[in-house]
Design goal:
Layout lengths: L2 E18 L4 E14 L5 E8 L4 H11 L11 H11 L8 H21 L3 H5 L5 E6 L9 H13 L4 E5 L5 H15 L4 E5 L6 H11 L6 E3 L7 H10 L4 E3 L5 H10 L5 E2 L3 H4 L1 H14 L10 H8 L8 E3 L13 E2 L2 E3 L12 H7 L2
Parallel strand pairs: 4-10, 5-6, 6-7, 7-8, 8-9
Antiparallel strand pairs: 1-2, 2-3, 4-12, 11-12
Helix pairs in contact: 1-3, 2-3, 5-6, 6-7, 7-8, 9-11
Length: about 350
């Protein structure tokens, strides 16, 4: 089996309404959809994503620029192809757009491997479970009033969620505490609750807020300070009893290693497209496991399920519905858990009608 071609399509999937985190206003999820073809008719799919279309053409161009590196190669040679792309990107940089591009290709190659074997990837990787807990992440944004927060929390409960994440940010501490308290009042203490500050605070602000939030028994306090502030992360982690989660904006295992070495967080959150695809995600999770650190994937619920199904230290996944409209298959949450797909490959395929509808 040999790779015979690569094609891309850019789609812009609008959100039902604009949402606001502490640092972004998000109107749409814009994706480069990647399809890698083989001479035996087996194809694999992956994607790269940005919000509101930012730099999507640059990502698309980088993906196409990497195509010659996989043409004519056996898609099963995932480790060798990953290394070849990694080495070739040294001059332009091994973070940012180059890694995002190679991540989408790596994901598509692994999809081919699973389909060719007729096996779901979590079984090929070495299955650890058949279903995984999930937390609702598609709501409870900064743009909501307290009443709206509480109604969305009720909606998540009615959808079968037993965990959810609320956003917090800059501003009076009392106002941020009020947001978390409003959600906790609705869901009670049997439901897991996380709070995400989206890198919006200083270390001192985060410690002050984090101490006020301790009484709400949060599963974690996420990304309180900018991703590059490892010292700030470590300072916050040492000051709070609530576990600190971070890592979604770091690249490859080297970024994860730096977070571990600086004791920056209790829970690592690799992002599939920034970490370097399935190949590098698994390496990073193994690195974390060597230090008994749990991991939870950032975004990309559909593709992350096969990872969660094979990594013993992955204890929960983020349920984000942004990408659901582009797939034929859907995700169902039941009693707070998602079943790992038993379909070959990563288990999700692009819906051609949706691709045409959202195509840029």
């Amino acid at each position: 089996m040999r790779v015979s071609g690569l094609s891309t399509a850019i789609v812009d999937v609008p959100l039902p309404k604009p949402i606001r985190s502490a640092i972004h206003v998000i109107k749409s999820a814009t994706c480069v959809l990647v399809t890698v073809e083989t001479d035996e008719g087996v194809s694999g799919e992956g994607l790269a994503f940005t919000i509101n279309g930012a730099r999507i053409k640059s990502i698309d161009a980088m993906i196409q620029d990497l195509e010659p590196m996989i043409l004519g190669r056996d898609p099963h040679d995932t480790a060798g192809l990953w290394q070849q792309m990694w080495d070739a990107l040294n001059f332009v940089g091994q973070k940012g757009v180059p890694i995002i591009a190679m991540s989408a290709i790596d994901t598509a190659l692994w999809d081919i491997v699973g389909k060719a074997a007729g096996k779901p990837l979590h079984k090929l990787f070495g299955a650890a479970r058949d279903k995984v807990p999930a937390y609702a992440s598609g709501g409870l944004w900064m743009s909501l009033s307290l009443d709206e927060l509480q109604q969305e929390a009720r909606d998540f409960l009615s959808q079968g969620h037993t965990a959810m994440k609320v956003r917090v940010g800059k501003g009076p501490v009392a106002a941020q505490v009020e947001r978390v308290e409003a959600v906790r009042d609705v869901i009670g203490y049997d439901i897991r609750l996380m709070a995400d500050a989206n890198q919006s605070l200083t270390a001192k602000e985060a410690i002050r807020l984090g101490r006020e939030l301790e009484r709400f028994d949060l599963t974690w306090f996420e990304e309180p300070v900018p991703c590059w502030d490892f010292e700030g992360h470590a300072e916050i982690r040492a000051a709070l009893d609530t576990p600190l989660a971070s890592g979604e904006t770091e690249y490859t295992r080297y970024g994860m290693r730096q977070m571990i070495e600086t004791k920056a967080c209790d829970i690592l959150m690799p992002d599939l497209e920034r970490i370097g695809g399935f190949t590098e995600f698994r390496r990073s999770a193994a690195l974390a496991a060597a230090f008994d650190i749990p991991v939870t994937p950032h975004l990309f619920t559909e593709y992350s399920l096969c990872l969660a199904g094979s990594l013993p230290n992955c204890f929960i996944v983020e349920h984000m519905p942004w990408f659901a409209p582009i797939y034929r298959e859907s995700i169902q949450v039941k009693d707070g858990e998602i079943e790992i797909p038993d379909r070959p490959g990563h288990g999700f395929t692009f819906d051609p009608d949706a691709v045409d509808r959202f195509r840029v």
